[in-house]
Amino acid sequence: MEAALSSFASDLHLPPGSGPLAAYEARLAAGLLAPDPEQRKAATRLDRLWRE
Hints:
Radius of gyration: 10 Å
Number of strands: 0
Keywords: Cell cycle, Cell division
Strand content: under 5%
Structural class: mainly alpha
Protein name: Cell division protein ZapE
Mean pLDDT: 84
């Protein structure tokens, strides 16, 4: 999973070690995703798990 996130993050020029929430927020800022409260909740939960 970390390798997939690493690729996902590098496409957006995120620093190494950026988690799912940072990737989600970067995609929002780039206009690649529309804001979705449920997706934000999911990204937040995944980020918490990813950092453990």
